[in-house]
Specification:
Strand 1 and strand 2 form a beta hairpin. The protein has a domain of 168 residues: Lysozyme (Orthogonal Bundle), CATH 1.10.530. The protein has twelve helices and three strands. A three-stranded antiparallel β-sheet has the order 2-1-3, with no helix packed on it. 56% of the residues lie in helices and 5% in strands. The longest helix is centred in the first third of the chain and has 22 residues. By secondary structure, it is mainly α.
Amino acid sequence: MPTVKLLFALILIFSTSTLFANEFSFRKYNHVKDFYKDNCLEAIDVAKKHKLPPAAILAIAGLESGYGRGYVAQITGNILSLGAFKSDKELPRLYLPYSKSKQRVIFDPNEINKHSKADLTWKKRPKSLKRDYRPAPYAGTTDKLELLTYDQSLKHSAHKACFNDFATRWIIDSSNVKVFKEARIWLDELVDKHGIEVLFTKKVNMEFISKIGGHPHSFNYRETWPKKAKLIMNKVGLVKLTNDIQYKAMNFDSAWSNI
């Protein structure tokens, strides 16, 4: 009998761990882990300060930046793909190569020089219209496109500024964009009624994504956009991750492994 009980317990443990592994299947990718390790704590801090749902912000950042691997995000630090305001510097037109072997656009001169001419297809890239978070004098220019790749401090500052802009320039009650204004009012009412803890619930994070995107005159008009953002949130386990860090006082690595 003890042997049977032990076997049952082992099966239950294995089944449970497999279930969670499948549920948070995107955590197996190193580039996903690296992206969220770099940005998770900052997003939580901004979310608490400005009353925003942190898991949703992180999901949107992952989607918009390709987990930080999109060339515009790498150059500008604009991981939320925020459009530039009139006073902002934006990334200009670029002439960059696409690497057939790497299957991506490359912009770092040091990396470009490592590729053969046959591997590279050069192409004019349109003006991005996205804010360039590189510091002066490089923001808005074609100089030092690789700057944030080699300076992690500047990269962190750019990501932090991007999160802050989202909170203080986009999702605000004075926004000219109706869905942003309504989302801000909705969040304020929720926090006033239930406290900051409501921002860490799956329901609110899911609803926030639906409110600000997937329809005309929103963060992204494509109907598939909310579905993609929610898929990332669920498959990475961003609600659980932010809760483990916020309420269980786990560091990132412990929370990431807690599946």
